[in-house]
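User: I'm new to structure prediction. If I give you an amino acid sequence, what do you actually give back? Let's try with this one:
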Amino acid sequence: MKKMSVLFIAILFCAGALHGQETDREGADASSEETPVEEITVEEIPVEETVVEETPVEEIMVEETPVEETVVTEAAQGEGFESAEEGQTISYSLRRNKYFLESLHLKNLANLAIEAGEYEQSEEYSAEAVRNAELSDLYIAEQLKRQRALKAISEARSRMAWALTAEAPKYYPNEYEKATGYFDAAITAQTAEDWDGTFENSRLVAEALAGVAAPPAKDFVIEDMPKNPAKYTVRPWDKFGDCFWNIAYWFYNDYYKWPLIYEANKEKLPDSNNPDLVEVGTIIDIPQIDNETRIGMWDSGRPYKR
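Assistant: Good question. You get back a string of structure tokens that encode the predicted 3D arrangement of the chain. For your 306 residues, that looks like this:
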């Protein structure tokens, strides 16, 4: 009985030992498992974006100076003097002169310079554009003066020619002498491109001749002129009134055909651009206008009849 008890205790001891070993083995297995590592998340700190605002630069604009339509109005002139037409405006070609076009070109360059950020260059272009616009205004004003002066001296020339047909040197010597002085002064001013002086002296021609009476209506015939001569020798103005204006009337019966004679002889003049300067003794050609026959030189010994 005692042996059975010892054996039973021994069996329990072995079973406990085995259970302990199994428990130790499970603990070892459990400790051998990999311990999970907690993942560390690094949060990205948002960086605030710095926006550099571009300061707007005010665009420099070169305004095109509007050119007002210039109306030429003149005071009433002496009797027989035709004044400039009222309501005359600046022509398209005159308005778009070289200075005006240059101002537009510079204006565009100024704007392009601003777009490229070249502000100092833009200011220089702008200043030049304004300067050329001002030069354009001065040029237009000068050309209008010139047009007015040339019209005035043409009318004065017509008035002087008319005075000769009225025999003003004989019946109105004082008036004619005064008008001649004004006309000569107008020619001198025109040569010097003094347009104000040209206009004023031309106006005074008509004023000086205002009291000269018109001659009786008659066919104007210059003595000793062949019918159709091809050439003519210029005679003194103060005695015969020789000028292209009168010569055209003598040969063509039409004052306004004087440019035909002038164009045919301009190279013979001291100044080819000035039809008023015709030297005494110059032999000029008389061109055909209706296929008429023109032969030889004007001959003072032959009568002339248109």
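You can read the tokens as a compact description of the fold. Here is one thing that stands out. The domain at 219-306 is CATH 3.10.350 (Membrane-bound Lytic Murein Transglycosylase D; Chain A).
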